[in-house]
């Protein structure tokens, strides 16, 4: 097997210093192969965005490495950095915030080329802009509008078009559809899926909507309080999760089928997510876990395979709950 | 592409139309614009020599206003040296507004730049900028004015520089605060991901967002500087004869309040109306730039 | 505010004060030599030189500066050339008057503009609102000294209702307070009106209405407290400005406050007075800022004093 | 028994882009003890409907242009302001989407909940504190006595929503209108809140209008569903019927476009195009520009909400089952 | 309230030390109210009148003897005697204290007092001092308890009023002194307050807040209660005649001819002002009545300029008019008018109005060698009644405000200062003529007047000394 496109090793990101830093990301390791889509789910505040921003070098990592195509993201300089920037692009959550409201679409889309002279001669910009717009399902004449003249879904398409301008090999999507309307969400998801196929894009797909993640990803990673607690192939995670948190998470998602009402086994977790600046000792989930024992308070579980499965689970008492789905 | 680019002027025209409509929706702003246009006409008339005939004529000293049998230049009276008060007001308008605009422009440009740097980079340079601006803020403007005028001689240029320096901290603060906020916005992050450096980001992403706020602040400041200049001139620390500003006219006219009220009254009124106009326009501008307030400017048609 | 934060802020303020005093020291000395001003025109060159030596002005500026710093550390601010007594003593006589004047003006301005601002915001767009807007804009735009002169003309000279100027019983305070109030009043009405309109559109106000609260309660209990925050900031800034003296207004009314003292000090090259007033005012401003922060935190529990 | 009956409600707003017709003749009714889900995408007018019921449409820029809201036999729109206010909170209560914004940041939550009693003079001053603590207990906030003294920013999102709920049920209203109460919450918290709402509603027997665009929550909670599009109700049916057999092309599209957690979907079927500009709605049926079935008639005649089988209504010229 | 009179002046006194009465702000309060001098000058003709000294004579060139009044006590009860005068004199001339009197009037000579007995005083001078009594009219005598090495804020004198309180920034209150040696004043209390604005001062008399207001600007002097009195000041422009083109006499003459003095009187200057031909008033010893007043002749001025231009004088060089803000009422307007007049005859004149300190730098030498040709707005006062108090410092080559370096003038002034009687008078008259006509070092403007507004129910007529003295004891209610 060839080397993975992105390899993350024990990456941490802590905010603030002093006695109780916010441990937004705490020793996370994973990798993404070329053309693969990795879904990342977790509740609000568990560190998804922090992880993404660290990968994009918008935050400096506190510890650990992330290598993109063999280049350490944090260390890259000069030409290496520029090459890295071209390879990895991002689509942000909020389509209203991620486009500069004072830039016309043609300038928005050509900004990457202006920043990477030599990628595309200026003469070809306008044709390329038209092509990009078409690729994301917009029309060439949209190039002369301002972002506020677009709907949310259209804006998200603009964001995607812009991310594609440099023809990256890895697209990092931080909740690209969660700000969109249900009917528009489907359009964007389909668009991403199509582009991924056409361009052999690898994706890190962050979302908290499990249904969306299930639909999009090849592999899924579940995060809780800055740690990865379970990871594995999408189908396996959704059909037979082993971590209690994943189980609870899946069961909490309401099924759009009124006939199933009251028939599913639902696990309603008690309490809120603990503060990431003062995470529980041992297993971080233990404060809301119905299986927690004294051991969980002392010993942090490793992310390992439990039994005959492709899943890696960080739980001392990992087991499947067969009748979940 | 031609048929697409053809729409650009049309968009511009519609923007002008929208502004005109928004202006029509705010009678106060409309009045302000009319008043400022009037002042502009007066200034132009003066520069083209309409008042050049108004020399010192001690015989016409303190000629009262509203005597329409006189030359039109004397319709609002003559000053203590018999010069046309209207002409003096025109000349003073150029100084007063000129000083205010230049001051504001200078402090706007410098303050915004420093604020952007302080806000975007932070760190020791940022704190240094902020501390210096704190210290400047701590000074009585009078002292700074005096030092500047003493060191460099009393001239309009020096007054502008001095006032600009004392006004700068407010721009620095606002620009910094805005920058701090804007630099956390997602589109700035996006630009960084594309490889945009600080200069690029400040120029293309932060400045355009910060600019309207700064312009609003500037138009409020035009008003403030005008008041300030008149105060300084009143104390004898601002514009000095033979130059003339509205503030100086008030100062000189105050001696005549009981005998020739028009000498101090009209320049006072001019300061007030002009200041008010700039304040009102600032308000209007703020609303125009805030989509959630737009409806205020559009009359409800039923 | 915890003592630790207070300590930190005090330390920072002390540093800033040091910079301010240093800048003041050099700036005033750039405005020229006081000796000519203090000696009769006929005084001989020898007498001028003697005075320079006596005042220590003949020594290098740096030496003078360090002596000045040393004296400041001992809270010795020198002797006023003009008043011929310790400068700080003169300043501490004038400062309380200015503070009282400013406090009265600001408090009145704040109270009245809160009321007027709420009325305007509640009737946004109506004739009342427009009237309030015009009046407050005019108040914010009127040159205070001009207003002062006009007030003297009308109320003192023509109507004989109030004394023209000076310092004394309550009657003497009316006109200075009114003139000083005009601008804060205008500004605060604008601000409170704006933030009230915003607050009245806020979600929590909808909640209050949904709870069944009457408009008066919605406006004064729910919206106003939130809307006051920007007004408090501006009032703090104004208070800081006023601490430096009502400047021109004090001159017009012959009000013996710190503003007049400072202007006179500057015009008379009374270095000790200028330095002491700036020092005293800076300290007051520091205290005002802390006060404003505390007030802020009292109004809005989200704000933590740093 | 019909508790609330809304007929042809029309609301408009003045905006820079011109006059927006936010509601274009909304009609639905709510029975006692029933949960009606108001489903529809962003901007379809769900919140405006709630505002109109609660007399919260800001005027200006908004205005109620017509229709009626009949509650307990009286048309609310005819009542004087003062009487409507008296109904708010006591008989109809509203829970907002963004609890952080909806709670006044400068008052403690105990004060804000207690205000319900003070405004409507329902309890003596001495009893209020105890009542507030009981309410907080009831919505599952531990350590209620201490937390009542805290401010909204000191609570997590789920807690704040619980506080909103406590406030809404304080005076045991007949109707609770919940405007997307769980949209801003995480799934695990959302599950808690949905559970809580269910429990409380069952206990008090209040009717509920549950506004959302989350099909899952609807399936979990609602008895009946009204689907909104561009300021109109386009379909009304019992929850079972709607999910099993949507008739309006918009409802069909809505159901087909959402990925499901319980089954692996290979391809989603999105509704083409985007929501129309409310200032410039298409003539006739507002959905026609995105509708696969649109014919000439749709551009000319506005379809009315008509009977389409027992207990269900559809506003479409060409209703039918999903293809 | 008939036992109180309130006087409003422009500024707070700088000091109330008896030895600082050379400043009129201080003198107005103290002189002959709180403290007294050995002799006074007659406001009408400048003659020396007895006060604390009853008689005096010059024993020899360097020695004078004064007989002091008996039975005079200071406000603190101590007796007035020769020792007190000796102490006051020593104090006034002590350079360490920096007394105004010592630095101005008494400068340039040494004075040693000697108490022969309680009422007999001998003063020895370093050089001959022909007009010692005039000089001593400026020396106020404070009580012996006045600190010898520092200034005081609480003067104790022998005058009809004692200081009651000085509320800094607000007012000075005086109270009649019961044991005064002369006639008791009619009004028991006096308040001196100060306001910067002329209009306010004038209004205060109308409103009854004050009974006397000084320095009312011409435009505020609109009522019958406004009394103009000459204030011993003469306004002028000093010509810096060392710098071209002002080094040319034709140019300086043109300056004088260009100014329409009649036009300025009654408009910018008060009607009561009189055109001046020299820098002192007729009442001053040494005044020359024969110097002609400059006519207004702009054509002649233009002709002179053309002539000078033809002779190669750079008459088109920019000449700066240095004005001082507020030196007298309407000072800026007068300079604007003068600038316009100069421009009219073809001068390239630029006006620069300055604050006092920078103006003083222009006034007082030494002057930098590289400087622009300039005219300086100034005024000269002479309250001591003798030309020697005006001339040496201002018009001799050694004078620190002089721009004239003419050995013949120097010699004239030196000789006049040492002379007495008619010789003195004629020498001074020659000097004045020389300065005004031959050298044309000045553009004399006006003998100035001050306007005081006096409440109609008050008996008070300000005289020429009212700029320096408010003779409170002469005031009474009608
Ligand atoms: N700049 C920052 N400074 C301090 N703390 C931060 C910062 N950014 C994030 N955090 C904290 O780090 C934790 C993780 O935040 P992060 O935004 O990565 O979560 P998330 O999983 O993306 O949440 P969401 O689903 O809400 O986007 C949170 O507790 C957050 O408060
Ligand atoms: N105060 C207002 N001013 C102008 N337009 C408004 C106002 N309130 C609502 N609207 C308009 O009314 C329409 C309906 O809005 P509404 O808030 O009811 O939508 P919604 O269905 O609740 O959407 P969401 O799911 O986003 O909450 C929208 O087009 C909106 O722009
Ligand atoms: Mg996130
Ligand atoms: Mg809504």
UniProtKB/TrEMBL annotation, chain A:
Q: State the compartments where it is located.
A: Cell inner membrane
State the UniProt keywords alphabetically.
Answer: ATP-binding, Nucleotide-binding, Transport
Chief localization class? membrane
Q: Which residues form the ABC transporter domain?
A: 6-250
State the CDD domains in the record: ABC_NikE_OppD_transporters
* A matching Pfam family: ABC_tran
The protein's GO terms of the molecular function aspect are: ATP binding
Q: How does it sit in the membrane?
A: Peripheral membrane protein
Note the superkingdom of the native organism.
Answer: Bacteria
NCBIfam families, per database record:
oligo_HPY
Which PANTHER family does the entry mention? D,D-DIPEPTIDE TRANSPORT ATP-BINDING PROTEIN DDPF-RELATED, TRANSPORT ATP-BINDING PROTEIN
Q: Which family does it belong to?
A: Belongs to the ABC transporter superfamily.
Its recorded name reads ATP-binding cassette domain-containing protein
Automatic annotation (TrEMBL), chain B:
PROSITE patterns xref list = ABC_TM1
Q: How does it sit in the membrane?
A: Multi-pass membrane protein
Q: Which UniProt keywords apply?
A: Cell membrane, Membrane, Peptide transport, Protein transport, Transmembrane, Transmembrane helix, Transport
Where does the chain cross the membrane? 27-51, 93-122, 142-166, 206-228, 260-282
Primary location class:
membrane
Instruction: List the subcellular locations.
Output: Cell membrane
Please give the InterPro entries that the UniProt record associates with this protein. BP-dependent_transpt_permease, MetI-like, MetI-like_sf
Pfam families from the UniProt entry: BPD_transp_1
- Annotated ranges, domain ABC transmembrane type-1: 93-282
Q: Does the keyword Electron transport apply?
A: no
Task: Please state which protein family the record places this protein in.
Answer: Belongs to the binding-protein-dependent transport system permease family.
In Swiss-Prot or TrEMBL terms, this protein is called ABC transporter permease
**In which organism is this protein found?**
Devosia neptuniae
Automatic annotation (TrEMBL), chain C:
Per its UniProt record, what InterPro entries does this chain match? BPD_transp_1_N, MetI-like, MetI-like_sf
Alphabetic keyword roster: Cell membrane, Membrane, Transmembrane, Transmembrane helix, Transport
Q: Name one Pfam family in it.
A: BPD_transp_1
May I ask which residue range the UniProt record assigns to the signal sequence?
none
Give the record's membrane topology. Multi-pass membrane protein
The highest taxon in the source lineage is: Bacteria
- The answer to whether UniProt assigns keyword Membrane to this entry is yes
| Bilayer-spanning residue ranges | 99-122, 134-159, 171-192, 278-299
Q: Tell me which family the UniProt entry assigns to this protein.
A: Belongs to the binding-protein-dependent transport system permease family.
The record places domain ABC transmembrane type-1 at 95-296
> Which protein, by its recorded name, is this?
ABC transporter permease
Subcellular localization is given as: Cell membrane
Q: Quick one: where is this thing mainly located?
A: membrane
TrEMBL record, chain D:
Q: What protein is this chain from?
A: ABC transporter ATP-binding protein
Q: Work out whether the entry's keyword set contains Protein transport.
A: no
In this chain the ABC transporter domain maps to: 4-255
UniProt keywords (A-Z) are: ATP-binding, Cell membrane, Membrane, Nucleotide-binding, Transport
Q: Does the keyword Nucleotide-binding apply?
A: yes
InterPro entries in the record: AAA+_ATPase, ABC_Ni/Peptide_Import, ABC_transporter-like_ATP-bd, ABC_transporter-like_CS, Oligopep_ABC_C, P-loop_NTPase
CDD domains associated with the record: ABC_NikE_OppD_transporters
Topological relation to the membrane, as annotated:
Peripheral membrane protein
Signal peptide region = none
Which family, according to the similarity comment? Belongs to the ABC transporter superfamily.
Q: Which Gene Ontology MF annotations are present?
A: ATP binding
Q: Where in the cell is it found?
A: Cell inner membrane
């Amino acid at each position: 097997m060839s080397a993975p496109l992105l390899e993350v090793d024990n990456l941490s990101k802590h905010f603030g210093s002093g006695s109780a830093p916010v441990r937004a990301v705490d020793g996370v390791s994973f990798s993404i192969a070329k053309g693969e889509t990795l879904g990342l789910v977790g509740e609000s505040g568990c560190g998804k965005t922090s992880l993404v921003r660290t990968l994009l070098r918008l935050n400096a990592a506190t510890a650990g490495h992330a290598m993109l195509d063999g280049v350490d993201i944090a260390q890259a300089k000069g030409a290496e950095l520029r090459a890295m920037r071209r390879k990895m692009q991002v689509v942000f959550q909020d389509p209203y915030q991620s486009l500069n409201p004072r830039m016309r679409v043609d300038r928005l889309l050509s900004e990457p080329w202006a920043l990477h002279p030599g990628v595309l001669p200026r003469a070809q910009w306008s044709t390329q802009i038209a092509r990009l717009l078409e690729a994301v399902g917009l029309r060439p004449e949209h190039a002369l509008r301002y972002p506020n003249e677009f709907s949310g879904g259209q804006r998200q398409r603009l964001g995607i078009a812009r991310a594609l301008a440099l023809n990256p090999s890895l697209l990092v999507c931080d909740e690209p559809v969660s700000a969109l309307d249900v009917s528009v969400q489907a359009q964007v998801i389909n668009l991403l899926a199509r582009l991924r196929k056409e361009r052999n894009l690898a994706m890190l797909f962050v979302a908290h909507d499990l249904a969306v993640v299930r639909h999009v990803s090849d592999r899924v990673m579940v995060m809780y309080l800055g740690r990865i607690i379970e990871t594995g192939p999408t189908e396996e995670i959704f059909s037979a999760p082993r971590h209690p948190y994943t189980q609870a998470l899946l069961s909490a998602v309401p099924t759009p089928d009124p006939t199933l009402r009251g028939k599913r086994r639902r696990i309603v977790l008690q309490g809120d997510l603990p503060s990431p600046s003062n995470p529980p000792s041992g297993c971080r989930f233990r404060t809301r876990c119905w299986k927690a024992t004294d051991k969980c308070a002392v010993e942090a579980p490793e992310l390992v395979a439990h039994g005959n499965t492709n899943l890696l689970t960080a739980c001392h008492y990992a087991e499947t709950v067969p009748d979940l789905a | 592409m031609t048929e697409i680019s053809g729409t650009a002027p049309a968009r511009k025209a519609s923007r002008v139309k929208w502004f005109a409509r928004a202006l029509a929706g705010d009678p106060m702003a409309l009045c302000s614009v009319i008043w400022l246009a009037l002042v502009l006409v007066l200034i132009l008339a003066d520069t083209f020599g309409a008042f050049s005939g108004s020399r010192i004529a001690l015989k016409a000293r303190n000629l009262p206003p509203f005597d329409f049998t006189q030359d039109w230049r004397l319709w609002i009276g003559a000053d203590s040296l018999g010069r046309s008060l209207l002409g003096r007001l025109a000349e003073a308008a150029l100084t007063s507004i000129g000083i205010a605009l230049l001051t504001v422009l200078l402090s706007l440009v410098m303050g915004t730049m420093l604020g952007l740097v302080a806000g975007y980079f932070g760190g020791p340079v940022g704190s240094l900028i902020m501390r210096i601006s704190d210290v400047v803020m701590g000074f009585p403007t009078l002292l700074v004015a005096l030092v500047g005028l003493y060191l460099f001689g009393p001239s309009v240029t020096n007054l502008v520089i001095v006032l600009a320096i004392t006004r700068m901290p407010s721009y620095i603060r606002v620009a910094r605060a805005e920058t701090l906020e804007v630099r956390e916005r997602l589109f700035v992050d996006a630009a960084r991901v594309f490889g945009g450096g600080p200069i690029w980001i400040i120029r293309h992403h932060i400045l355009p967002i910060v600019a309207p706020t700064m312009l609003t602040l500037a138009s409020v400041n035009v008003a403030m500087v005008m008041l300030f200049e008149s105060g300084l001139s009143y104390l004898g620390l601002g514009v000095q004869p033979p130059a003339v500003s509205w503030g100086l006219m008030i100062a000189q006219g105050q001696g005549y309040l009981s005998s020739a009220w028009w000498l101090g009254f009209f320049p006072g009124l001019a300061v007030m109306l002009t200041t008010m106009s700039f304040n009102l326009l600032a308000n209007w501008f703020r609303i125009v730039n805030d989509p959630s307030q737009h409806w205020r400017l559009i009359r409800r048609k039923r | 505010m915890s003592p630790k934060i207070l300590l930190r802020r005090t330390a920072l303020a002390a540093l800033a004060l040091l910079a301010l005093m240093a800048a003041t020291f050099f700036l005033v000395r750039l405005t020229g030599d006081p000796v000519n001003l203090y000696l009769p025109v006929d005084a001989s060159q020898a007498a001028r030189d003697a005075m320079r030596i006596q005042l220590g002005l003949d020594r290098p500026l740096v030496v003078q500066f360090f002596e000045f710093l040393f004296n400041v550390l001992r809270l010795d601010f020198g002797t006023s050339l003009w008043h011929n007594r310790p400068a700080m003593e003169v300043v501490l006589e004038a400062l309380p008057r200015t503070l009282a004047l400013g406090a009265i003006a600001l408090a009145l301005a704040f109270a009245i503009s809160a009321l007027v601002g709420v009325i305007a915001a509640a009737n946004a767009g109506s004739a009342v609102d427009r009237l309030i807007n015009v009046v407050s804009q005019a108040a914010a735009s009127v040159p205070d000294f001009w207003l002062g002169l006009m007030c003297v003309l009308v109320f003192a000279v023509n109507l004989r209702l109030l004394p023209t100027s000076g310092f004394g019983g309550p009657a003497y305070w009316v006109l200075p307070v009114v003139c000083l109030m005009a601008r804060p009043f205008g500004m605060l009405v604008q601000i409170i009106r704006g933030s009230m309109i915003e607050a009245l559109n806020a979600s929590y106000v909808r909640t209050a209405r949904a709870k069944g609260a009457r408009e008066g309660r919605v406006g004064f209990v729910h919206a106003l407290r939130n809307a006051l925050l920007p007004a408090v900031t501006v009032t703090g800034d104004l208070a800081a400005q006023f601490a430096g003296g009502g400047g021109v207004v004090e001159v017009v009314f012959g009000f013996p406050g710190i503003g007049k003292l400072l202007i006179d000090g500057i015009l008379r090259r009374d270095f000790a007075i200028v330095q002491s007033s700036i020092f005293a005012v800076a300290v007051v401003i520091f205290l005002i800022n802390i006060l404003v922060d505390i007030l802020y935190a009292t109004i809005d529990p989200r704000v933590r004093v740093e | 028994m019909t508790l609330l009956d809304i007929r042809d409600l029309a609301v408009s707003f003045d905006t820079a882009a011109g006059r927006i017709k936010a509601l274009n003749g909304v009609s639905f009714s709510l029975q006692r003890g029933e949960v009606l889900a108001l489903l529809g995408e962003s901007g379809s007018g769900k919140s405006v409907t709630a505002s109109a019921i609660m007399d919260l449409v800001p005027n200006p820029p908004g205005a109620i242009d017509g229709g009626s809201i009949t509650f307990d036999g009286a048309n609310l729109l005819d009542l004087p302001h003062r009487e409507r206010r008296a109904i708010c909170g006591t008989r109809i209560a509203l829970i907002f989407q963004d609890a952080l914004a909806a709670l006044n940041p400068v008052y403690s939550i105990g004060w804000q909940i207690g205000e319900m009693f003070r405004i409507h003079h329902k309890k003596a001053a001495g009893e209020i504190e105890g009542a507030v603590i009981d309410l907080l207990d009831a919505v599952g906030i531990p350590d209620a006595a201490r937390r009542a003294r805290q401010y909204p920013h000191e609570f997590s999102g789920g807690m704040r929503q619980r506080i909103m709920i406590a406030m809404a049920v304080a005076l045991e209203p007949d109707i609770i209108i919940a405007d997307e109460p769980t949209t801003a919450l995480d799934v695990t918290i959302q599950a808690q809140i949905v559970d809580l709402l269910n429990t409380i509603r069952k206990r008090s027997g209040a009717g509920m209008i549950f506004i959302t665009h989350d099909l899952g929550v609807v399936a979990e909670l609602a008895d009946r569903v009204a689907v909104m599009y561009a300021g109109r109700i386009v379909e009304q049916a019992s929850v079972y019927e709607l999910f099993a057999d949507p008739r309006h092309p918009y409802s069909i599209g809505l159901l087909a476009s959402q990925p499901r957690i319980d089954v692996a979907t290979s391809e989603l079927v999105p509704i083409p195009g985007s929501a129309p500009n409310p200032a410039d709605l298409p003539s006739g049926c507002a959905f026609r520009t995105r509708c696969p079935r649109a014919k000439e008639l749709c551009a000319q005649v506005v379809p009315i909400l008509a009977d389409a089988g027992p207990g269900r209504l559809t506003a479409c010229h060409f209703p039918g089952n999903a293809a | 309230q008939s036992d109180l009179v309130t006087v409003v002046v422009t500024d707070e006194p700088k000091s109330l030390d008896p030895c600082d009465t050379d400043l009129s702000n201080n003198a107005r309060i103290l002189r002959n109210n709180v403290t007294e001098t050995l002799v006074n000058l007659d406001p009408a003709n400048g003659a020396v009148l007895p006060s604390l000294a009853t008689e005096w004579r010059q024993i020899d060139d360097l020695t004078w003897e004064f007989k002091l009044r008996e039975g005079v006590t200071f406000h603190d009860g101590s007796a007035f005697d020769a020792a007190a005068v000796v102490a006051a004199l020593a104090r006034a001339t002590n350079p360490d204290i920096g007394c105004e009197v010592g630095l101005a009037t008494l400068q340039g000579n040494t004075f040693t007092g000697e108490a022969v007995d309680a009422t007999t005083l001998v003063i020895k001078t370093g050089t001959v001092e022909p007009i010692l009594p005039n000089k001593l009219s400026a020396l106020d005598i404070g009580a012996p308890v006045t600190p010898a090495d520092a200034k005081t804020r609480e003067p104790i004198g022998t005058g009809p009023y004692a200081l009651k309180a000085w509320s800094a920034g607000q007012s000075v209150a005086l109270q009649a002194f019961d044991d005064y040696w002369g006639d008791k004043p009619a009004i028991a209390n006096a308040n001196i307050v100060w306001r910067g604005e002329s209009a306010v001062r004038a209004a205060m008399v109308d409103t009854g807040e004050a009974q006397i207001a000084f320095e009312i600007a011409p435009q505020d002097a609109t009522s019958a209660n406004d009394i103009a009195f000459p204030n011993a000041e003469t306004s002028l422009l000093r010509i810096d005649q060392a710098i071209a083109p002002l080094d040319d006499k034709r140019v300086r003459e043109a300056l004088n001819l260009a100014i329409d003095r009649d036009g300025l009187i009654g408009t910018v200057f008060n009607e009561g002002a009189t055109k001046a031909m020299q820098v002192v008033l007729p009442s001053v010893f040494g005044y020359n009545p024969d110097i002609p007043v400059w006519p207004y002749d702009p054509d002649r001025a233009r002709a002179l300029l053309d002539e000078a231009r033809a002779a190669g004088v750079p008459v088109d060089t920019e000449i700066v008019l240095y004005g001082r803000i507020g030196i007298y009422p309407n000072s800026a307007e007068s300079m604007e008018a003068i600038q316009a007049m100069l421009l009219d005859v073809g001068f390239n004149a630029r006006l620069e109005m300055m604050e006092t300190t920078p103006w003083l730098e222009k006034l007082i030498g030494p002057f930098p060698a590289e400087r622009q040709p300039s005219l300086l707005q100034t005024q000269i006062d002479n309250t001591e009644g003798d030309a020697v108090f005006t001339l040496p410092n201002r018009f001799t080559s050694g004078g620190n405000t002089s721009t004239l370096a003419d050995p013949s003038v120097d010699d004239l002034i030196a000789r006049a200062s040492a002379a007495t009687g008619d010789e003195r008078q004629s020498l001074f008259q020659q000097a004045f003529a020389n300065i005004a006509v031959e050298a044309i070092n000045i553009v004399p403007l006006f003998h100035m007047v001050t306007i005081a507004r006096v409440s109609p129910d008050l008996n008070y007529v300000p005289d020429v000394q009212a700029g320096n003295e408010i003779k409170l004891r002469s005031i009474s209610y009608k």
